[in-house]
Design a protein that fits this description.
With 365 residues, the chain is α/β, with parallel strands linked by helices. The protein contains twelve helices and eight strands. It has two domains: 45 residues; 316 residues, Alpha/Beta hydrolase fold, catalytic domain (Rossmann fold).
């Protein structure tokens, strides 16, 4: 018997219901799997620790935490005032006693919903203009978005008059060159500007009873020089993630004689710092603006020495050179390279153009 039109319609309707149910079940299954996947991703990204560090950092009793306790000099000038600043939402300032005997102002922003116990701590390093307040203002929207405590240490021009005093504070006197170590002018790591970040983090963590294992680090321009050298010249730094944006020039992670010596490479640095193993393993992103291409004729702040020019004619090219030399050093020594390089389209040499992308790299899941 041939099927009637009514039977055909009933069959088609039943088939549509069947497929509709299957589709709904499939959607539910995909949703469950998707939520599970997101949950697993979140779990993976929440656990950020210091496993990138060399094994000696994790096993040596004289590791990074004890590096900050070898001095009897208290970190805060006024511990009570500093505690109030750290525990109050909004902006504030506190003063620290540096181990170089020079006062340091710290500009602070605490977001409205920051959690003292579990909140992330973010150090932002200013540029050659020493305009720490402007850098803090640029960081505030990022800090609110990700609920992180921002700290900007101000290395003033009065106390750190040259760029080298701020970003290359590894010698006790004289020129920063490849002879400093052999002439006994290499500064103890505890006495470098980089260690002020470690000391400040230790004390802030103690005041807030914070459980973060380390801190996040961002620097722009001269601040980016500070960031990558901290990773090079402080043993076992407690850096969870770092971004160096638009540095003017770099200390390349190599002792290859094809590159100019220290401070432009590790060749001629103190022997204990000539091994690039630590810096190559660091969770560092080299962040570069695609329009940061002004040369020495257009930008008087761009170093034009032979050592700097060997890295490229502008900041964009020099950043790419730093990343490429890192790749080559890791490959030749059979070492892991944890670095990333990220370009910011249409960004020039302005912190406001790169700090939001940096925040995403540092804090987004």
């Amino acid at each position: 018997m041939k099927p009637t039109h009514q039977n055909l319609r009933q069959h088609q309707r039943a088939r549509r219901v069947h497929w509709s149910l299957l589709s709904r079940l499939l959607c539910i299954l995909l949703l469950i799997l998707g939520v599970s996947g997101v949950s697993k991703l979140a779990e993976a990204t929440e656990v950020i620790d210091l496993t990138w560090q060399p094994a000696t950092c994790r096993t040596d009793a004289a590791g990074s935490a004890s590096n900050t306790t070898r001095s009897d000099v208290p970190v805060f000038v006024d511990a009570g005032a500093a505690r109030e600043v750290l525990k109050t939402p909004g902006t504030g300032r506190l003063e620290i006693n540096s181990l170089q005997g020079k006062p340091l102002t710290v500009h602070v922003f605490r977001p409205s919903q920051f959690d003292s116990a579990t909140g992330r701590i973010w150090f932002v390093m200013h540029g050659t203009g020493r305009d720490a307040e402007r850098y803090l203002k640029s960081a505030i929207p990022v800090a609110e978005r990700h609920q992180v405590l921002v700290m900007v240490l101000e290395f003033s021009r009065n106390d750190y008059p040259s760029g080298d005093a701020y970003t290359l504070g590894v010698v006790t006197r004289g020129r920063v060159d490849a002879h400093a170590a052999e002439e006994g002018r290499w500064r103890s790591p505890l006495q470098t500007p980089y260690m002020e970040i470690e000391r400040t983090f230790s004390t802030v963590r103690e005041v807030l009873q914070n459980r973060q294992l380390g801190y996040y680090l961002f620097g722009h321009s001269a601040g980016a020089q500070f960031v990558h050298r901290l990773l090079s010249f402080i043993r076992c730094p407690r850096v969870l993630k770092a971004v160096a944006a638009n540095a003017g020039w770099y200390t390349l992670p190599t002792t290859d004689e094809k590159w100019p010596p220290f401070p432009y490479s590790l060749r001629g640095a103190a022997r204990e710092f000539q091994d690039p193993r630590q810096v190559l393993a660091a969770p560092l992103t080299v962040l570069l603006g695609t329009r940061d291409t002004r040369g020495k004729e257009e930008d008087s702040n761009l170093r034009a020495s032979a050592g700097a020019m060997a890295q490229g004619p502008n900041r964009l090219q020099r950043g790419m050179t730093y990343f490429e030399v890192g790749q080559q050093s890791a490959l030749s020594a059979n070492l892991p390279l944890a670095w990333k390089v990220q370009l910011v389209s249409d960004a020039g040499h302005e912190v406001a153009e790169v700090i939001a992308p940096a925040g995403q790299l540092l804090f987004a899941p």
